[in-house]
Amino acid sequence: MKNLILSFSISFVIFSAYSQKFAVVGDQRGATIATQQVSVLVNSFNPEFIVTTGDNFDLTQGTLDSQVGQYFHNYIFPYLGTYGAGDTINRFFPALGNHELSANGLTEYLSYFSLPGNERYYDFVKGNVHFFIINSNTNEIDGTDTSSIQAQWLKTNLLTSVERWNIVCIHHSPYSSSSHGNNSWMNWPYQEWGATAVFAGHDHVYERIMKNEFPYFVNGAGGAGLYPFNNPVPGSIVRYNLKNGAQLISAYADSISFRFYNVDSELIDYYTIISLNDNLKNNQQWYLNAYKNNNSIYINYNVKMPSNVSFEVYDISGSLLTSTANTYKLSGSYVEKATSNLQSGIYIVCLKINNNIVCSRKILF
Q: What topology does CATH give the domain 7-15+278-364?
């Protein structure tokens, strides 16, 4: 009997198959029932860290600790509040919203959190993701127009970033179909400067807007009362305001996926960016292919010079399915059985030659 063998490569990159998994939440101020529900949702993600889009608290609605620490103290370091133990490292990275400016909120914000840089706007790196947290409030002393000190800081750091993914978080969204509408002063050329995506809040909804195939997320459904939608702005793809929720983002070296869930853990939106590297694809020194035959994955690869070789197979979520020990190989072409008893689907196959790793994402039938 003849077996049908078919494989299709989506992408081909050198990387570690480890992913960064983080949550994005916004406008969770007020210590509402919905805030508590969203915090339960976020904790269910088991994220490595949390990034916010602002309006974390409003001192006219209670203490900072009752609106933030009550729900997220286990991500904060140093944590000096009253709701339990904090973390041993900081894993909570907020953006400033307009409601933090009520009363002496900014002073409390700066003393409550321990953040990089001047703490009003800052950057940090986790794995292959570079985060840029921007202060979009117009009273920012370093400015909010494209020629401002803050904007030029972002431009310079985006253009020189060496990480694969560059995420910008602000509070006032450049585009929104909800009550506040477009906040034009924050319409910076993020894509041109090298950003991967922009997250914002301010409007208490979830919306994904695509501009020139570049995603803008309005993520302000973290606990405050939800807003209605007006007429969709150009590029609006997904609009949701029925229940509060948060985003879970998974970043690999060859792709980054964005999922928004409501508080009932229902998936509302799922968007993925796949990064292609043509230089690596055309480099025959790193030839790697995979195919499926009788529920087994076979690896076809080239070794240009005698090397130690091993390979790994992951499922689409990044979970390791199988791996081999290093084996010394002479120059030549090889076909080896990687694993068996696999169903048709998407797999990530990684070949390690000495200290280099080349991976290919495959749809195998």
A: Immunoglobulin-like (2.60.40)
